[in-house]
Design brief:
heterodimer; A: Dimethylsulfoxide Reductase, domain 2; six-stranded mixed β-sheet; 28 strands; B: alpha+beta; Alpha-Beta Plaits
């Protein structure tokens, strides 16, 4: 699978960068500029870190104080407009609950009792433990969990140390099934930012994707553009999301049955010969067998599964075909729902293939990037053991490391023991399903290090907690994004860290020194590294510092403009029939299996996003908490009435295994089906250090004791838990 | 003459509250207060529900009860653009305006004066849009001169169905919601 790299993403010679316009020069201020004087304003370009989208931002310091953050107009991702998290980023800097100094555990794990130590002491402690682990078990016994661009240098140090076990929840707990489904079909991932051409779609289909609440800036901007110019909108969701409220067709589907709907849509489009026949015959492989497999998936059959009226299924299928190829069936992002998620994602890929949208305007474009060479580091040692997460390639199509696979190996000690975890900027206790398993794994560790900005639930269990400076106080690696047009973005400090927090590059470099791996850091300060890479690309580092963004000339992104129609699949075609799946013993064409159902009287637990929060990371940011302080549980109005509940009543949720939630307020609403309830993810904090967020709202993660593992790629489906509504006094 | 108004496209708005936090940082709104906010109205029964999401704030009414009731003249209509403002130094914090405003748009600032949306007049006078308008990722908000028939806001009102809030209050609000 590794052959399916990003090789065909177009790269451009970075020397041909567009000169920044007058707008850029208007920024023209530096860190020691006028903002430190009364009445003076200093504006520094950087890029945001409130989520992983990495929007270009300009932070203003007035009278020596961080005042506001606005979008960088030069940034192709945000076009000068940030989302509420980015605008509220100053709350991350001023958060009173931030970690301030390195902490060393003094009591049992999880008791959240530490002593403050110096960086020297903390790093010496970690290095000594890591050396011990390497001596006893080999360096492969250390694992790193890392989320976001900030993890670049810790990954570098851990690779230099010699471990292959580096993972992020963004694969097995988020977008993994989607990327596998699209790889199996088109030979390439959807990528991040997604290569979805929402801005030019004439018909947009969202399946569970709640753009607007899920606030990935570019996508939301393009979504609003599409809505504004009257693009047809079809939304499938058990909850009437904000996006659904704008739809021409809202399909209130029974949770877990999406694949039945997609198969029926394809059945209609194929049977009525509404697909792009030329596209399919030119680029498709195995279409006949695929078409034959659809015969029984009629809208009438799908009605029994999904609850969607057959005529609505036909009408929406015909509408999709009418606007093809500018019909975009969005692949979603967090798609670990039912356990058949890679196959469902593959069905979405196939539906797009029928509509001819891959490679076409209004469908999926071909991302381009700047060719910025990697820093010329010495080669890493070659680990003696294979990655621990997927023994025997049990999940043959997992092309990234499985967090949950590392967790399993940590608990079982097989295929070999894992004795140390380093966790960077990811709250695994809220991100991974089944908290108890994560805690069991933690108990098997000799070392748990957490590097973060706030004292998360994960930090509560750490032996050592290292306080990282926020993105506003540090440099990070460059971002030569894969996007509609090539550009390069720089993150640079706007203000100083308020206490003894350090940037991750410094932490990673110091740790490497202490491990005797100093040779892997030929540079002393990150600016040497940054300047080296930027110069090696033939670009001007001073201009990048001044403007925050360097843009390259536009490149073709559609087949029609010269992008070659190539597919990194075994057949070199779009695989309607997958011989890879067949050989591995899986269905070569997607086949429907009904979702698991819950105990009588229970409600399926669904969760999603709110626009002003990221994961469980932003709830102590006072500006963002001011917009949403806690989550509420959405319950269908009639169901609530039957249970004697109204909005604002406080209840608890209990799941099928007896797990009980925090107290949470009811939102009785006409915006959700009667057979499910919905929470915004990430609330219900139990870490005492998160003073502002502690105990507010309920944690979906606590109720996700069960999960179904995707047999293709090891993703953990989480929409397989069911809850009952209990009184606030329940214990 | 000019007549500043705001036109907000509820079709595009996703209710993300970026306008709220942008106002708070731009104007140093004290913690726990806001000059603008999001309201959602849902009508109907699942699954046939009409949802309207609105970014709301002071309506800068052409017939402003807050100005009429102000005993000190602190609340006033700005000479250019008809923006309703409060002169902090003249305000005695009597809350008459808070009671008079049908939109609940005002609050008492911890420093003792009545506070509310200013249409970011400090930005408008420099030729910029109000912070909430300039930050909105969905481009759902428009600011401009209703007396200029060629302005963006005038053209939107001429071509799109719209409504105002509590027109029956007779305040002649200047924030228009496109539907």
């Amino acid at each position: 699978m590794n052959a399916l790299s990003r090789r065909r993403f177009l790269r451009i010679s970075a020397t041909s960068v567009i000169a920044a316009g007058a707008g850029a020069r208007a920024l023209g201020a530096f860190r020691d500029g006028p903002g430190n004087h009364p009445g003076g304003i200093r504006r520094t370009p950087t890029f945001c870190d409130l989520c992983f989208w990495k929007c270009g931002a300009i932070a203003s310091v007035r009278d020596g104080r961080l005042w506001k953050i606005e979008g960088n107009p030069l940034d192709p991702l945000c076009q000068g407009r940030l989302c509420p998290r980015g605008t509220g980023g100053i709350g991350a800097h001023s958060d009173p609950d931030r970690l301030r100094a390195p902490l060393l555990r003094t009591h049992e794990r999880g008791e959240e009792k530490w002593k403050e130590v110096t960086w020297e002491e903390a790093l010496e402690f970690i290095a000594a433990k890591m050396k011990g682990i390497a001596a006893s078990h080999g360096p492969e016994a250390m694992a790193l969990f890392s989320h976001g661009i900030g993890g670049t240098f810790l990954k570098h140090t851990l690779k230099a140390y010699g471990t292959p076990n580096i993972a992020a929840p963004s694969f097995a707990q988020c977008r993994g099934p989607r990327d596998v489904g699209f790889r199996l079909t088109f030979g390439e991932d959807v990528g991040s930012p997604e290569r979805t051409d929402i801005a030019n779609a004439e018909c947009l289909v969202l399946i569970g994707s709640h753009l607007g609440e899920n606030m990935h800036n570019t996508q939301v901007q393009e979504f609003a553009t599409a809505v504004g110019r009257g693009a047809r909108l079809i939304v499938v969701d058990p909850r009437l999301s904000v996006a659904a409220s704008k739809a021409h067709h809202y399909l209130p589907i029974k949770p877990g049955t999406d694949l039945a709907l997609i198969l029926a849509w394809m059945q209609v489009i194929v049977t009525e010969k509404r697909y792009d026949i030329d596209y399919v015959s030119q680029h498709g492989f195995g279409f006949e067998a695929f078409a034959a497999s659809l015969v029984d998936y009629t809208p009438e059959w799908a009605y029994a599964e999904t609850g969607i009226d057959p005529e609505t299924i036909r009408a929406t299928a015909r509408e999709m075909a009418r606007y093809r190829p500018a019909t975009l069936v969005h692949p979603g992002r967090h798609v670990n729902w039912n356990g058949d998620d890679a196959q469902r994602s593959r069905a979405i890929a196939l539906l797009n293939a029928l509509l001819g949208s891959w490679g076409r305007k209004g469908g999926f474009y071909q991302p381009v990037t700047m060719d910025v060479p990697a820093y010329p580091y010495p080669p890493f040692p070659v680990p003696k053991k294979a990655k621990v997460d997927n023994p025997g390639h049990k999940y043959p199509f997992a092309h990234e490391t499985l967090t949950t696979g590392i967790r399993e190996a940590t608990i079982s000690g097989a295929p070999y023991p894992i004795k140390g975890w380093m966790v960077y900027a990811t709250n695994l206790l809220q991100a991974l399903p089944n908290e108890a398993e994560t805690l069991r794994a933690i108990q098997a560790l000799d070392l748990l290090v957490v590097v973060d900005v706030v004292p998360s639930e994960m930090a509560a269990w750490a032996d050592v907690v290292l306080p990282e400076s926020t993105y506003l106080e540090r440099h990070d690696d460059l971002n030569p994004e894969y996007f509609r047009e090539p550009f390069l973005a720089l993150r640079q400090p706007v203000v100083d860290a308020p206490h003894d927090q350090k940037p991750n590059w410094w932490i990673a470099r110091q740790l490497a020194e202490k491990l005797g791996l100093g040779a892997f850091y030929p540079w002393k300060h990150i600016e040497e590294y940054l300047e080296h890479r930027v110069s090696a690309a033939g670009l001007d580092y001073a201009a990048l510092k001044r403007d925050g963004i360097l843009r390259g000339p536009a490149q073709p992104i559609y087949w029609a403009d010269g992008v070659p129609a190539e597919f990194d699949t075994p057949s070199r075609k779009i695989e309607f029939y997958s011989t890879q799946l067949e050989k591995a013993g899986f269905d070569p064409v997607p086949r429907y299996t009904p979702p698991v159902s819950g105990p009588p009287g229970s409600f399926r637990l669904l969760f999603g996003r709110a626009p002003m929060h990221s994961f469980s990371r932003t709830h102590t940011n006072r500006l963002l908490a001011g917009l949403m302080d806690e989550n509420v549980v959405w319950i269908n109005e009639a169901v609530a009435a039957r249970q004697g509940l109204k909005s604002g009543d406080i209840i608890r949720l209990r799941n099928q295994d007896g797990a009980l939630s925090n107290r949470i307020a009811v939102k009785a609403t006409e915006r959700i089906r009667p057979d499910c309830v919905y929470l915004v993810h990430g609330f219900g904090h139990t870490a005492r250090g998160l003073r502002h967020a502690f105990g507010k709202g309920a944690s979906d993660a606590r109720l996700i004791t069960r999960y179904r593992t995707d047999p293709l790629m090891g993703g953990t489906a989480m929409n397989v838990n069911f809850v009952t509504l209990e009184s606030a006094e329940a214990v | 003459m000019s007549r500043n108004i705001m036109v907000i496209d509820t079709r595009r708005c996703v209710g993300c509250q970026d306008c709220v936090v942008a106002c708070q940082t731009e104007n140093d709104v004290p913690s726990g207060f806001c000059r603008d906010w999001i309201t959602e109205t849902a009508r109907g029964e699942y699954p046939t529900v009409q949802l309207e999401i609105r970014s709301e704030r002071c309506n800068h009414c052409a017939n402003p009860p807050c100005v009429h009731c102000c005993p000190t003249g602190a609340s006033h209509v700005h000479e250019r653009g008809g923006v309703v403002l409060v002169t902090h130094e003249k305000c005695i914090g009597c809350k008459a305006c808070l009671a008079a405003c049908p939109y609940d748009a005002r609050f008492i600032h911890p420093k003792g004066y009545a506070d509310k949306c200013t249409f970011c007049i400090h930005r408008v006078e420099r030729g910029q849009d109000p912070a909430c308008v300039s930050v909105c990722p969905t481009h759902c908000m428009h600011f401009g001169d209703a007396d200029d028939p060629l302005s963006g806001v005038s053209r939107l009102l001429a071509t799109r169905p719209h409504h105002t809030l509590l027109p029956e209050a007779g305040t002649k609000p200047r924030i228009y919601y496109l539907t």
